[in-house]
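Issue 218. Parser rejects a valid record. Input:
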Amino acid sequence: MSKFSLRLHHLTGLSPVDEPLDVIDVAEARELARVRLLLTRDYSRVELRHQDEALEVLERDSLA
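Output the parser choked on:
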């Protein structure tokens, strides 16, 4: 079981999806969270989580 995961919040209001991360440290996890939000237009917000506790929340600047 991965220590890190992303909780992806859909723009449409569907229930969030949890996605495990296979990373070596928190810095790599943060970078992947940023990339995931930037490259996927389906999500309004990404929560970086460590052992089911929120570490950081990233949100889109614009929904356009």
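Fixed in the parser; the record now loads. The longest helix spans residues 26-39.
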